[in-house]
Design goal:
This protein is of the alpha+beta class. Helix content is 18%, strand content 36%. The chain is built from 3 helices and 7 strands.
Length: 138
């Protein structure tokens, strides 16, 4: 019999700018108990007691400082290639397509840098955390 796996559910934002580039954030490895590899990720976080879209807007604001965000709809869902760095559980991630206004990015301490990538580049940058079935759709 296979052991049951535990998961947390997170929401992620695929935020595109007017040039069609996608906003990615580099995870800050100092926030992890197991100081692992840093990687690029989409803005977002886990769902904890709020609605999905409200959680997504709150996480975008917290991680990027973006206040004006338009959620266009679900992009895809995936099981992450990596586990939660402190709780040793898997991630089920639901990604939404979003558009943001031209606001200055203000990172939280969860990330060390941000960059706008064209979809082809973003696919490569996200392959560490996301399965190829997800990244190919970018």
């Amino acid at each position: 019999m296979l052991a049951e796996k535990n998961f947390q559910v997170g929401v992620k934002a695929i935020i595109k700018n007017s040039r069609g580039e996608i906003l990615l954030l580099r995870a800050n490895s100092k926030n992890f108990q197991k100081r692992g590899r840093t990687y690029w990720d989409l803005p977002g976080g886990r769902i904890r007691g709020k609605g999905i879209e409200e959680t997504l807007k709150d996480e975008i604001l917290e991680e990027t400082g973006i206040k004006k965000i338009k959620i266009l709809g679900i992009f895809d869902a995936a099981i992450s290639n990596i586990k939660h760095p402190e709780k040793n559980v898997g991630w089920i991630l639901i990604a939404y397509r979003c558009i943001a206004g031209k606001e200055k990015i203000k990172l939280s301490n969860e990330h060390t840098e941000y960059e706008w990538f064209y979809p082809k580049e973003a696919r490569k940058m996200l392959e560490y955390k996301y399965p190829k079935t997800f990244t190919r759709k970018l």
